[in-house]
């Protein structure tokens, strides 16, 4: 099994906080799945794996596929 991850940071409403949002790709060819997990965190640890980042929210799974699928993310404050 292999995975890839992306964790992004943005300023909070006052400009003094940091907001983290991440996407984690996980797959297993023998079990025929290729999915995305999306979560928010209150902090970021460079050496920490995605699933044990500081105060990670419940992870939301998104089924994906081995071929291209377009996704759009819309965030409203």
Could you characterize what this model shows?
The structure is a single chain. This protein has strands spanning 2-11, 18-28, 33-41, 60-63. It is mostly beta strands and 77 residues long. It has no helices and four strands. It has one domain (2-63). Strand 2 and strand 3 form a beta hairpin. The mean pLDDT is 83. The radius of gyration is 14 Å and the shape is globular.
Helix content: under 10%
Mean pLDDT: 83
Strand runs, count: 4
Widest beta sheet: strand line-up: 1-2-3-4
Kindly report how far apart the N and C termini lie: 36 Å
Class of secondary structure makeup: mainly beta
Sheet with the most strands, sense and barrel status? 4 strands, antiparallel
- Whole-angstrom Rg: 14 Å
Number of domains: 1
What is the overall number of helices?
A: 0
Order of helices and strands: EEEE
Low-confidence blocks of residues: none
Shape: globular
Strand content: 35-45%
Give a brief outline of the structure.
The protein has 77 residues and is mostly beta strands. The protein has strands at 2-11, 18-28, 33-41, 60-63.
Could you list some keywords that capture this structure?
single chain, 77 residues, mainly beta, four-stranded antiparallel β-sheet, 4 strands
